[in-house]
Amino acid sequence: MSSVSLSLPSMPAPLLSILRKLLPSLPPTGRDMDVPPLYREAFVLSGYRPLGLPWRCYVLSLFQMHKDTVTVWCPLLAAVAMMVRFLFFTVLQGGGVLGVRLWAPEGPGVSLDPSSLPLLLYVLSAVLCLSCNAVSLLLYPYTSCVRSCLLLLDSVGRGVHQAGRALALSLYSSDASWTESAVGQLYFPTAAVLAWLSCTTGCCVELYPHRPNLLHRKLLWGGPVLLAFLLDISPVARRLYTCSWNNQAVLLHSLQVVLFLLAALFFSCPVPECLSPGGFDILGHSRQLLQVLLTLSIVCQQEALLQDFSWRRAGLVRRVGEESLLWSCAVFSVVTLSCSVTALALRRCRVPR
Q1: SS3 237
Q2: Which of 237, 286, 316, 335 is the most exposed place for a label (fewest CB within 10 A)?
């Protein structure tokens, strides 16, 4: 009786050679003593990827368990999910979003819709921030030069997102009395300056070799970020204080604030790994918890802004004014350009290591 073989046919030798070049084997992760002090994290003793590997190895390390696996996948998946959610929201809007009419009484077509522009800028800034963060975490062990450039890119993405967040919150999540007050008039210009300052301090802390100690680095990096966040949520805080909490957008805004504050806690305290050094190297250390909480905070904020946009879109241009709306979007563009130029200038003037 003949037997039937179910084994797969062997690949030709040239094809195997090409696959080996395209998909190199990944070396095992190492200890903290295997990498320079610049790449080490306190109380994380293992799970470090070797330095200087081909870039394809770092891309494939997405599917390898190491200390950065969760921190890379989290913003990467969130960026895709936010973009898909926004596209679905765009399609489901009867009057269209981004100036495109899909199912309107006038029929399909293209029209200028200034009220949608801040929402688009916010979503793009959030996706940019998450994407830059994921890329910098994935590829930073490649070379020291690449690491510096990626950290600059991450700082620029963070500053642009802060400006986009302030723009959207000032227009969609604030009431008319707050917008017309002196605080409301100064809110977005101040937030724009803080966003640029956050990007600049982040670039300086990461680029220059004469680094302060860990506490001073966290203060220099996290101080402007926290100040920008406290300013950005001021219209949300007023709304949480004055409005009832039976609104879905209000609940999402409050959840976003709680998630960010919890993330700040893990940013300032290396727990739980300080309680058991080496016990949370792959899963559960503070860098991962910080990344998860920050990502969930951004996702919740987008959903809250989508709710606010649906509610206040009709009267936004009448309440704020089309000219003022377009000027605010122009300020956002200036902040984006300023952050990019500052990062490039600091990179060129960087003190050699």
Answers
A1: helix
A2: 237
Q: Is the dihedral of CA 347, 349, 351, 353 positive or negative?
A: positive
Q: What is the DSSP string of 118-156?
A: HHHHHHHHHHHHHHHHHHHHHHTTS-HHHHHHHHHHHHH
Residues 6+ positions from 19 with CB-CB distance below 8 Å: 11
Nearest to 253 by CA among 270, 229, 271: 229
> DSSP label at 111?
-
Q: Are 281 and 46 in contact (CB under 8 A)?
A: yes
CA atoms within 13 A on the CB side of 22: 6
> Which has more pLDDT, 20 or 293?
293
N-term to C-term CA, the chain:
73
Q: How far apart are CA 302 and CA 159, in angstroms?
A: 17
Are residues 253 and 237 in contact, defined by beta-carbon separation less than 8 angstroms? Answer: no
| Structure tokens that stand for 284 in this block | 């559960």
- Annotate 195-218 with three-state secondary structure: HHHHHHHHHHHHHCCCCCCHHHHH
Which amino acid appears at position 130 of this protein? L
Token code pair at residue 133: 């963060």
Q: Where are the beta strands (DSSP E) in 29-138?
A: 30-31, 46-48, 100-101, 109-110
How far apart (Å, rounded) are the C-alpha atoms in residues 333 and 28?
44
pTM of the model: 0.89
Most confident of 67-76, 212-221, 308-317: 67-76
The amino acid sitting at 185 is Q
Please tell me what DSSP assigns to residue 93: -
Work out whether the CA dihedral 68, 70, 75, 80 comes out positive or negative.
positive
